[in-house]
Amino acid sequence: MLRRLLRAVLVGPEAPQLRRFFLVGALAAGFQTALLGTLVEWGRVQYLLAAVVSIEITIILQYGVNNHWTFHTSRHQGWREYAQGLLRTNVVRGSAIPIQVGVLYALVSTAAIPYLIANGVGIVVSGIYRYVLDSRWTWQ
Fold first, then answer.
1. How far apart are CA 73 and CA 66, in angstroms?
2. Distance, CA of 28 to CA of 32 (rounded, Å)
3. How far apart are the first and last CA of the chain?
4. Which of 45, 70, 83, 133 is the most exposed place for a label (fewest CB within 10 A)?
5. Under a CB-based contact definition with an 8 Å cutoff, are residues 7 and 34 in contact?
6. CA distance 97 to 90
7. What DSSP line would sit under 25-42, residue for residue?
8. Is this prediction's pTM over 0.85?
């Protein structure tokens, strides 16, 4: 499976789109992790609640970048189409929140992994799920 994914990123027909999606995702992961740390450390928000809030804010930002750059050939234009796409990506990414937060909680509570590192693992685990659904449904 890993070999197939790497080949798709490098030479497959969806390679440019997949690379853009991963780049946007990597930048968003950094932003989300920084926001999570800020909410927990400075805002004194419980880490699981802070994770959900930071994920949702990142979902909205990522949608704008992905719509404009990653999926530019099937970009949502106009307020109605943009709002429908934002709703769809929220369904996709919102359904990934339990995956990401579940991984975060499991790693923190059972393996004593620091929450920011565990969050990164949760992002990676839920990332493939999000790409498949976003590319096939949000920007069909």
1. 11
2. 6
3. 24
4. 83
5. no
6. 10
7. HHHHHHHHHHHHHHHHHT
8. no
